[in-house]
């Protein structure tokens, strides 16, 4: 499938078409060929897009995902589509082998054994805001959805704050690069330390869809990814065992910052539903813990928040978009907000004079590992632009937010609903017609019901 520009005035209609084409009846594949299953954080953004077309369908997107929630509260990063032909996506459900080794898996659906950032409560609340602006039956549908999903969201957040943060630091641990921003340079040092053991022969399916291999992780990266899965499988996907002995355990500031914002959304949901006071207090406590954790990872010299490698006990000093985790978490002191915004606007990020659009690159051009066309090592991701737009609005930074939205939409008009974009040339990369890209366009183009 080709990347194609879209006339600005057709963006909304074309974005809706992309969601409809990728719709599998109740859930949406993340991309037409490259990603034929349901991905966790993609589904949250996709649900926001659906809300503008049909609130009940938006609710259904997240219902399908949460139907695959594990008994531990874990929301898996992939929910596998049983109808997909063998070999179309790798690693497939058989490789993950979750049901073979864990009793905590959902009864009938096959999933991966990892997680992705918890943007779901943010999406649930956004669905409510969109429904409230629409009025009528949409409001009842959204309220019903919120009461169903509230306990699932609480269980999900509780899982992250216990299994992934047993010491209560407020920082969430990741066990695999696929839980964060895949082959971001944030993980390079930890990946380099992994001794890859015996792996069965495998064929990558991604390079069938993205022919230019330089846009995707290397084969060596894949060997480490698969070996880490192998180790997680050998630990029966048991979080306590993994936390104690897995060679890759990283406190991820982006995941942690998103969880703070998601807990604020959860608190709004709890208030709307009239949840018991003790529950709201627990959520407040989670928020305070998360803020404290993020504060402990602040690097004053870079003006960024840094991940922390639990195995080496060292901060990970890379300049990537994850460093703006405090901005996403929100409610910063005026000084901290000013610092984050200055770095965000600087030539090290959106303000690089050579960039086609003033949008956040996944990795800073100042970072030695920056590669403008390579997956998570430089390109812009439209759903991340949306997340910053949303965070800026929450911070009262309406002009900055409007500029991001403007450039974000023009990027899509010029290149279509691509998975990611080269920041200097604006070249669309990765998959065409990626669902979450279309979804954020729908939200940006919706009438004035912004958060
Ligand atoms: C990418 O990840 C998958 C593995 O989960 C892959 O490369 O096969 C990442 O961009 C991830 O963040 C995203 O959720 C997924 C689907 O869009 O693709």
Overview of the molecule:
It is built from 18 helices and 10 strands. The protein is mainly α and 451 residues long. The strands form 4 sheets. Strands 3-4-7-8 form a 4-stranded antiparallel beta sheet. Strands 1-2 form a two-stranded antiparallel sheet. The longest helix has 26 residues, at 137-162. The chain is globular and about 55 Å long. The mean pLDDT is 97. The site of (2R)-3-hydroxy-2-(alpha-D-mannopyranosyloxy)propanoic acid (2M8) has 10 residues, from helix 2.
Principal-axis shape? globular
**SSE series:** HEHHEHHHHEHHHHEHHEEEEHHHHEEH
Q: For the terminal residues, how far apart are their CA atoms?
A: 34 Å
Radius of gyration based on Cα positions: 20 Å
Strand order of the largest sheet: 3-4-7-8
Overall pLDDT, averaged?
97
Residues in helices, as a percent range: 40-55%
Structure keywords:
451 residues, 18 helices, globular, binds (2R)-3-hydroxy-2-(alpha-D-mannopyranosyloxy)propanoic acid
Task: Write a concise synopsis of the structure shown.
Strands 3-4-7-8 form a four-stranded antiparallel sheet. Strands 1-2 form a two-stranded antiparallel sheet. A two-stranded antiparallel sheet has the order 5-6.
